[in-house]
């Protein structure tokens, strides 16, 4: 009775898989198609209305510049990358350490939290020249500016994260006669990680902003310097290419943090 | 004496009586001007299963926290196996099971059970261990094969069983349980009740079990401690003289219903 059926039999599992695959393709395809349509609209608009290149370059011109000037762009990419990463590391590390002292000492929090809030209220554009004057035109000022912009969100989130341990978990710690350092390493710090990563995702992109703002004030290399240079020379295609490069750097930083988060925070 | 092993079927249960697991002498607990527990005298016999009932605000949970050295007595004294609560805590004489399982969400089931063995190890604290390792304890509570599951991958009942395994890992002589099954559905709760009785018979530990449910109190307890509210005081200790080992069909017997009725009336007067 072994009848071999070659006619396709409806297979609900395979159908469901196919539907899911279609769904996934659509979620990727829709935004890509929208972006492509907008770029096309931009190209058509610039050409159709005869907009001068120095006001708004066509996407094709920007793309051509991106390819032509790629070595120059990369030459300016690396300093900004280093400043962003260093600022990200310094600012977040400082915020984490200060959050730890705040959680362990009410006095420290009472003394320094208002100052942290005050520093955060100073616009980064206003404080950048001050820091460049103090620290000179080298890399230090840019790192400090990038660090400063990362600092506050991480401080606030980290304090909340370290305090997010449930009262029952703390009772458990007490019943097990856990020491302060055991409570910190085994309970508080792991509880804070989801909060920390929310903050790191914010500072992954803001650190790039910090580095670029620092370069505006005084630098001859870096994406920020290139933006200023291209603007003053009415080299709009280069300006746009640099802007894309900058946002590419932000995306890269954000992606790295997201990847780390997926690896570490699995609960 | 406490290490006596009983068979899981529970035939001829020899519970080591005659020694006090916990003694409260005129113990009071105050929160500011509010008296949560007022001059409570209570003697908990070692090896027995006590359930604690009472209207809300009668200090049931507070009593467990007093015994477990989480909150201090304002007056009077509390001793556990002849030691102060602090000494007993440092010697891991007791363990606590909370209403929400209080598992660490980033640790697997097995790692959660191992937590008490890790805490204090570097400070050379003498950590007692039982005859069962964490893996075997998870098997005892019916979670074999789920050792590596994270808490969010487990159901509420499973999480609570991990918490029970964690509480047993240091072989406590006194197990304090604060409405551990309060958030579970009735079927899960009934199943865990039976499982808990098995564990109690097998380990010979003393259990203090706070509950809101009269039938749970009667089904589990050899003695029901009834507290009254405002301020928290002892109302009555009711001996539950039902055949051991307790089985599900016990719930349908007239004796069981009578105990429930008696406690319900008693609760009205608290």
From TrEMBL, chain A:
Which residue range or ranges hold the ABC transmembrane type-1 domain?
73-261
Give the subcellular location: Cell membrane
Q: How does it sit in the membrane?
A: Multi-pass membrane protein
- Keywords, ordered alphabetically: Cell membrane, Membrane, Transmembrane, Transmembrane helix, Transport
Principal place of residence: membrane
Q: Which InterPro entries match?
A: MetI-like (IPR000515), MetI-like_sf (IPR035906)
Pfam families (alphabetical)? BPD_transp_1
Is RNA-binding tagged as a keyword?
no
PANTHER family noted in UniProt? ABC TRANSPORTER PERMEASE PROTEIN HI_0355-RELATED, ALKANE SULFONATE ABC TRANSPORTER-RELATED, MEMBRANE SUBUNIT
Which protein is depicted? ABC transporter permease
Automatic annotation (TrEMBL), chain B:
User: In which domain of life is the source organism classified?
Assistant: Bacteria
Which SUPFAM superfamilies does the entry mention?
A: P-loop containing nucleoside triphosphate hydrolases (SSF52540)
| Gene Ontology terms, MF aspect | ATP binding; ATP hydrolysis activity
Keyword list, A-Z: ATP-binding, Nucleotide-binding, Transport
Q: Which InterPro entries match?
A: AAA+_ATPase, ABC_transporter-like_ATP-bd, ABC_transporter-like_CS, ABC_transporter_ATP-bind, P-loop_NTPase
A Pfam family that the UniProt record links to this protein: ABC_tran
ABC transporter domain mapped to chain residues: 18-254
The UniProt similarity line reads:
Belongs to the ABC transporter superfamily.
- Quote the protein name from its UniProt record: ABC transporter ATP-binding protein
Annotated source species: Paracoccus onubensis
